[in-house]
Amino acid sequence: MGWAIAVHGGAGDIPLSLPPEKRLPREAGLRRCLDVGIAALKAHNHPLDVVELVVRELENNPHFNAGKGSVLTTSGTVEMEACIMDGKTMKCGAVSGVSTVVNAISLARLVMDKTPHIYLAFDGAEAFAREQGLETVEMSHFITPENIERLKQAQEADRVQLDYTQPIQKEVPKDAALADGDSQIGTVGCVAVDNEGNLATATSTGGIVNKMVGRIGDTPIIGAGTYANHLCAVSATGRGEAIIRGTIARDVAAVMEFKGLSLKEAAAYAMNRVPRGNAGLIAVSSTGEVAMLFNTTGMFRACATEDGYSEISIWDSPIE
Amino acid sequence: MGWAIAVHGGAGDIPLSLPPEKRLPREAGLRRCLDVGIAALKAHNHPLDVVELVRELENNPHFNAGKGSVLTTSGTVEMEACIMDGKTMKCGAVSGVSTVVNAISLARLVMDKTPHIYLAFDGAEAFAREQGLETVEMSHFITPENIERLKQAQEADRVQLDYTQPIQKEVPKDAALADGDSQIGTVGCVAVDNEGNLATATSTGGIVNKMVGRIGDTPIIGAGTYANHLCAVSATGRGEAIIRGTIARDVAAVMEFKGLSLKEAAAYVIDQVPRGNAGLVAVSSTGEVAMPFNTTGMFRACATEDGYSEIAIWDSPTK
């Protein structure tokens, strides 16, 4: 046993040729978040507080698709979602359609702690944030030039598809259209366990670029992008629709329980059922194991365990 | 094998003393939906089309979906619905729908006409209009009974405050409702044809006096609604418990990973949920049916190709 923590900044078609000016800030971001999480665990903070703290850092970092730096809807707006869950009590909180709240994960935490509900969305979520005195800003705060450009390219790709008379309801192109090859299927997440086996998970995202207004993805769907129980805590990332159908986060725990698999085996089992190129996940178990799997080209990730091991990676080999 | 269909009109604290004027219209509603579903299956309609008969339950003001939906704390209607195809695992869901006559049909369009699974609030409403779905004034869905239910629920909250109970206490389990009429309802339908094609559909107004923007279990794939190659499930009850318990997904998972039959899996899953919180209807690819609940009752009906049929509220079938 012992504590363990894992963090992700999104899985997707991250090209091996990713230029340093895009790679280095994200590695630095993951490193800083990992350090924040490790310090919090060493100080005996509850995993719920640890995962919230780490995800807030990732939301504030404009290089990840959550909070500031969120991808844009087809109307050029920001609609953020987040979710948090406590493995021991199975209490959880989720929000969607958040456009002015600086840290959506903290709003999700308040839904869990301060209401009889699990999930609030859109105007109701925004109103609750104000009632609770959470920090809110103009929506423009979250919008970065990179994301305005990504939206433009995605809409251009759709137009090209129409010119070739492809059906309008075809899947949003897998980022092939993005000139810089920079995957934006991202999401951020953190899972943690302390040395008493208390587990928690938190996930936050802006969604997928050019999504329809009002589109909800896997992040706030308990059992899809986010899940924790007494066995493990899971945060998934990738193409939301595939993660929802695959009930990925729930399946990792279910397979551990009903088939007696280890965390690593269960995570591999769940991931194998998802079509290639669609997803990744991070998970920790009550006994301090860590699993970080993906079937995309890469996944921004980092982890550390009490025995001193730590890792920051994007593709298959750890960077450090 | 053979086709099978099950329908529910909500699980909850339905008192055995439910007066006839509240019981009979719901039994009649269930009976009519069952007949519609049976005819559709006999005519070889695909189960996805069959379960869309949830529209009938939405249109029936005696059930908590569509017309007859319970009200938010602001007296408004915010409906949700979800549909899933077991073979393809395609699914569609909507939340925060206030003017669309049949939310289940909007969920079907999200599944069929967009690259997404789930649309909510303004975005869902805009999509409905783009698609030419029938929309009406929100007042269409509001019934006097639900205005009364909201009033009683808010009164009960005020009483709780007078006794200095914490504000964030669970919404009272209907004990406060003077007529004892449970409103944890939802409606749903699951069906399988004789080729093993499975589908599920669920629709609801949510819980009475819910916060504006509150989403329950119905549109959450794996919680209130789920189908795969093994079974199709639609759950009802206290949404928050169904979400935590990932109920609909667990029925299929337990069948697959523990090798249980549909009935065993459904019973296993309901047993894990705190008493008084949930019920479900399910059918398997081989034509089995299960309708377990751990509440006082669940409005339900089912039929199988061998001629069996049942309409029930409490433990013994009504007929």
Automatic annotation (TrEMBL), chain A:
Residues marked Cleavage (site): G186, T187
GO biological process: proteolysis
Protein name: beta-aspartyl-peptidase
Entry EC no(s): 3.4.19.5
Molecular-function annotations in GO: asparaginase activity; beta-aspartyl-peptidase activity
Subunit structure: Heterotetramer of two alpha and two beta chains arranged as a dimer of alpha/beta heterodimers.
Residues annotated for substrate binding in this entry: R215, I216, G217, D218, T237, G238, R239, G240
Organism superkingdom: Eukaryota
Keyword Secreted appears in the UniProt entry: no
Record key words, sorted: Autocatalytic cleavage, Hydrolase, Protease
Major enzyme class: hydrolase
Catalytic activity: Cleavage of a beta-linked Asp residue from the N-terminus of a polypeptide
Active site residues according to the UniProt entry: T187 (nucleophile)
One Pfam family from the record: Asparaginase_2
UniProtKB/TrEMBL annotation, chain B:
Residue sites binding substrate per the record: R214, I215, G216, D217, T236, G237, R238, G239
Protein's GO biological process: proteolysis
Its EC number(s): 3.4.19.5
Residues annotated as site: Cleavage: G185, T186
SUPFAM superfamilies referenced in this protein's UniProt entry, alphabetically: N-terminal nucleophile aminohydrolases (Ntn hydrolases)
Catalytic activity of the protein: Cleavage of a beta-linked Asp residue from the N-terminus of a polypeptide
Recorded superkingdom: Eukaryota
GO molecular function: asparaginase activity; beta-aspartyl-peptidase activity
Hydrolase recorded as keyword: yes
Pfam family, any one: Asparaginase_2
Keywords: Autocatalytic cleavage, Hydrolase, Protease
Residues the record marks as active site: T186
Subunit (UniProt): Heterotetramer of two alpha and two beta chains arranged as a dimer of alpha/beta heterodimers.
Protein known as: beta-aspartyl-peptidase
Origin species: Gossypium raimondii
